[in-house]
Design a protein that fits this description.
486 residues; alpha+beta; Aminopeptidase; six-stranded antiparallel beta sheet; 15 helices
């Protein structure tokens, strides 16, 4: 978890005694070696000479490490890239998923889709040479974007349809021979077939309808990246470090910082591929659209009839529900608040402003027919991960409200393209454990010192197939649902 998500607990790490023994042995060995060197320097005939030689060797090692780190700081992760020069392309390298090394695929198989970026000189004929090289390899160019660079040159981004038998190394070698360098290549899928203007308009529409969509829209616009929303102030009211982005934003190679319209800043990081000015301009345009539209949350709602006949309304919540949420906190027992917030119960109210902000995720509220708030469900963006959390008022627990909120939150996570979600709770919280198990999804459990982390792996196809069979669990819970539009 990141330090931006102040409402959630730290995820525990596995601890093994064998690692402690190894570390202790290494410590004793290091002390013994240091003692021997010290005796040799102090009592030896050439102590000063050895000391000076050691200092020179240390400086040379540090200089070499600095040079090596700068040379490889922007190397793409293994398995997603291919070398950009012919010599490196012919060397053994990681093979992308779905491509077998050394054995070409069936020529009659479905063509492979690739996303590729390469940098070329900004001069006539450079793009033509790249296209010619691709044509000679039997590769079809489906889409092409150009990203001019301030220092000269152009980054060309392609969506390619290539024969399955063509390895990525051969494709990159052909590009390098045509003058391309700093080449990046990865597998694509059918979702990338949508042209860029259509995709950007769709993301703008989603952002216009729901303020919580801005981080997701940025991630889909820029590809694989990590996005953090940094509040303007901490929970104690002090200014937050890194939350003072200028209005025009900042672009620094693989990091861009944008001013958040709701306060604070949004940072986007992509450690293996520098952002281009074109991508920075598109991201800034989405943020400016969000700023002009102001706070907004969809107002649709569902009315659920519980087994005992009470009606519960489930809807999206935002900052306007802050007073009602605090009143629910006052009605909850210390045990219920402790199971949710994993910290001092007196600090629970301080988290609500963060949790109800659409910038950090989505919140569902369950209210009674009289309008009293009795349950909250949170789907929180946590960098590359997504957390789910529930808080049910004591008098309304064990009635199926938590399971219903959790099912809806996971549907939202699937729509947002999340691969998994996790819940942080205590081992004694049998209600949350039962709700997660009731989802019917693959679960991973990690427990340490009473803190339990349950991770659900989301399979969009499985969740989609289950959506048509929701009637069965609804009959078991005797739910009756009708949708109202606000």
């Amino acid at each position: 978890m990141t330090d931006r998500n102040v409402a959630s607990a730290q995820r525990p790490h596995r601890h093994h005694w064998r690692r402690d023994v190894v570390e202790l042995a290494a410590l004793f060995c290091a002390v013994a070696v240091a003692d021997g060197i010290a005796n040799l320097v102090v009592h030896g005939p050439r102590g000063p000479i050895l000391l000076v030689a050691s200092a020179i060797a240390l400086l040379v090692t540090a200089a070499f490490h600095t040079w090596w780190a700068r040379r490889h700081s922007h190397a793409p992760p293994p398995g997603n890239s291919a070398p950009s020069d012919p010599a490196a392309a012919s060397a053994p390298h990681a093979t992308p998923a779905g491509e077998s090394a050394g054995s070409p695929a069936d020529p009659k198989a479905t063509p492979a889709l690739w996303r590729m970026r390469t940098t070329v000189r900004d001069e006539p004929g450079s793009l033509a040479a790249i296209c010619t090289a691709l044509a000679r390899s039997g590769v079809d160019i489906l889409t092409l974007q150009t990203h001019p660079l301030p220092e000269g040159g152009t980054v060309d981004e392609f969506l390619l349809r290539a024969p399955q038998r063509l390895p990525s190394a051969d494709l990159t070698r052909a590009i390098a021979g045509a003058g391309g360098h700093s080449t990046w290549i990865e597998r694509a899928d059918a979702h990338d077939l949508v042209d860029t203007p259509t995709r950007v308009l769709g993301l703008a529409t989603r952002t216009a309808l729901d303020a919580a969509e801005l981080p997701l829209a940025l991630r889909q616009l820029l590809g694989r990246c990590t996005i953090h929303s940094i509040p303007a102030t901490t929970l104690s009211g002090r200014p937050n470090a890194g939350a003072d982005a200028p209005v025009e934003g900042v672009l620094e190679a693989t990091v861009m910082r944008l001013r958040d319209p709701s306060g604070g800043a949004i940072t986007v990081e992509r450690p293996y591929l520098p952002f281009t000015p074109t991508e920075f301009a598109r991201a800034r345009a989405l943020v400016e659209l969000d700023a002009r539209l102001g706070p907004r949350v969809p107002r649709s709602q569902d009315v659920l009839t519980l087994p005992e006949g009470n009606e519960i309304t489930v809807r999206r919540a935002d900052g306007s529900d802050l007073a009602a949420a605090r009143a629910m906190h006052d009605r909850c027992s210390e045990r219920t608040l402790g199971l949710r917030y994993h910290g001092p119960v007196g600090d629970a109210d301080r988290y609500l402003g963060h949790l109800l902000s659409p910038r950090f995720g989505r919140t569902l509220a369950a209210t009674t027919a009289s309008g009293k708030l009795v349950a909250l469900g949170h789907l929180l963006w946590d960098g590359d991960e997504t957390e789910v959390a529930l808080l049910i008022e004591d008098d309304w627990q064990r009635r199926g409200i938590g399971s219903e909120l959790l099912r809806r939150l996971l549907s939202m996570a699937v729509e947002a393209g999340c691969d998994s979600v996790y819940a942080v709770t205590q081992a004694s919280n049998t209600g949350m454990v039962a709700a997660m198990r009731g989802l019917g999804l693959p679960l991973d459990y990690q427990i340490e010192e009473g803190t339990l982390v349950i991770t659900a792996r989301l399979d969009a196809a499985r969740v989609g197939s289950r959506s048509s069979s929701h009637e069965a669990p609804r009959e078991r819970h005797a739910y009756e649902t009708r949708r109202l539009q606000g």
